[in-house]
Amino acid sequence: MLTPEEWTAVRLSLEVAFWATIWSLPPSILIGWVLARFDFPGKGIFDGIVHLPLVLPKVVVGYLLLITLGNRGYLGQYLHEWFGISLIFSTAGATVAAAVVSFPLTVNAIRLAIGGIDQGIETAARTLGATKLDAFFTVTLPLMMPGVLSGCLISLASALGEFGATITFVSNVEGQTRTIPLAIYSATHMPDGDAMALRLTVVSVILALGALVLAELADRRIKLALGQI
């Protein structure tokens, strides 16, 4: 059985991962669609910037967030002074860190899904009187749903395991930013923390594996419903 402190870490991890996935989904769909459908000057650079969180050390991502969105950051100082929004040492800040790190995974899944759609179907919808917006919501979006759900669940799994950017950006505050990975880190620095670290590691593996299995099942079910398999 988990202790109350461990349950708090599990609950916080699920909350952070859920909201990180939800908030990053709309821009992921937009950017994935732009990258899949349009060619423009500087596209390679833009694509690289979008995927930077995948290749940068997560501590670097956290530091960039700190100097950008911290209370004295380039943008964070205005959020703090004008709106009273402080992301430091908060669950909201942990959510931002998880969203930034997992964002490229969602974009990539959606981009691949859109790239696999026959544009002739969209053109046919346009010839029948549908506007570009109508064609997107009635044709493109349903066909890309396997990629959307798969990307969301993979993003969820990534957010559940986020450590480096979180601890650098919002520190390790129990009940606020101490998700499962940070709780494991804290347990390894406690004289009697081995049992706690092991329990949370098992929970982390179960949650991550569950998200990946759900991603595969959702992908197959939606493709089956759309007649793609």
Question: What labels would you give this structure?
Answer:
229 residues, mainly alpha, 10 helices
Written account of the structure:
The radius of gyration is 20 Å and the shape is globular. It contains 10 helices and no strands. It is mostly helical. The model has no long low-confidence stretch (mean pLDDT 88). The longest helix has 34 residues, at 4-37. The N and C termini lie far apart (42 Å). It is a multi-pass membrane protein. Pfam families: BPD_transp_1 (PF00528). Part of the binding-protein-dependent transport system for molybdenum; probably responsible for the translocation of the substrate across the membrane. InterPro entries: MetI-like, MetI-like_sf, ModB_ABC. It is found in: Cell inner membrane; Cell membrane.
Quick synopsis:
Helices cover 77% and strands 0% of the residues. It has 229 residues and is mainly α.
Mean pLDDT: 88
Assembly status = single chain
Let me know the largest β-sheet: none
Task: Report, as a whole number of angstroms, the end-to-end distance.
Answer: 42 Å
Please tell me what the overall shape is: globular
The parts where pLDDT drops under 50 for at least 5 residues are none
Order of helices and strands: HHHHHHHHHH
Structural class based on helices, strands and sheet pairing: mainly alpha
The total beta strand count reads 0
Radius of gyration: 20 Å
Helix proportion range: over 70%
Give the DSSP E fraction (strand runs of 2 or more residues).
Answer: under 5%
Instruction: Count helical runs.
Output: 10
Membrane topology: Multi-pass membrane protein
Transmembrane segments: 16-36, 48-70, 82-105, 135-160, 196-215
Keywords: Cell inner membrane, Cell membrane, Membrane, Molybdenum, Transmembrane, Transmembrane helix, Transport
Organism: Xanthobacter oligotrophicus
